Amino acid sequence: MALRFSANLSWLFPELPALPARLEAAAAAGFGAVEAAWPAGCPAQELRAAAERARVRIALLNMPPGDPEAGELGLAAVPGRQAAFRQGLEAAVRYARAVGCRRIHVMAGRVPLGTERAAVAGEMETTFIENLRYAADLLSQEDMIGLLEPINNRITDPRYYLNTPHQAAAILEKVGRPNLKLQLDLFHCQIMDGNLSRNLETYFPLIGHIQIAQVPGRHEPDSPGELNFPYIFELLESLGYTGYVGCEYAPKGE
């Protein structure tokens, strides 16, 4: 089966200010699906109407990030922010239901400022597991899937809590909910661990969504870089991957 690609509207078509316009541009470029970070400022009915006009599916949305001015990028693993996490989850579910999206990225969040990762790792894991169980129960009522994405802490976000597929897989095993899956961004995976073929094969049963960008520039897959995407795409097809491949990169060319 041929791979299906999703345009990440938070990265692609930056010359267009509004998500509905970016969605229409994605459809014109041949994408059958789109995804986005939390669509703040874009009413759900506007995005749904644009998707229906363009006959494009909304494949994935992020949860609200928390308080960006306070440096937050997700709340699921942040101690003391459980109430805000639940509010954000409920908002994400309402929005996803309204636009017909079945996958929500449950962002782990950052190690709090002024603390050392090693000192708070245990408390953050406990918080993460508790919040994920709550999220899984709520999402199951809507027939939705929650996704965990490891983000590299070498280049992109030194304070992000969830960094590797191995760490995410261990969390998923402890949570033990079938509607929680791994969101594997190959850009982050290559930076943290490399060994992409083996990682894809090892974690394939857990994968609910894949994202791509060339390394190290985070540009188009066919731009110069470390990753051999024709080989990776063939591997995904041979593994029988049927989900979407999210194009989350900063466009360099036209």
How would you summarize the topology of this molecule?
Layout: E1 4-8, H1 19-28, E2 33-36, H2 44-54, E3 57-62, H3 82-99, E4 103-105, H4 117-141, E5 145-148, H5 165-175, E6 180-185, H6 186-192, H7 196-203, E7 207-212, H8 229-239, E8 244-247
Parallel strand pairs: 1-2, 1-8, 2-3, 3-4, 4-5, 5-6, 6-7, 7-8
**Largest sheet report:** 8 strands, parallel, barrel
Which bin fits the share of residues in helices?
A: 25-40%
Please, how many helices?
8
Average pLDDT taken over every residue = 97
Global morphology: globular
Class of secondary structure makeup: alpha/beta
Please compute the radius of gyration using only Cα atoms. 17 Å
Tell me the total number of β-strands.
8
Q: How far is the first residue's CA from the last residue's CA?
A: 28 Å
List the uncertain runs. none
- The percent range for strand residues is 5-15%
Order of helices and strands: EHEHEHEHEHEHHEHE
Main sheet strand line-up: 1-2-3-4-5-6-7-8
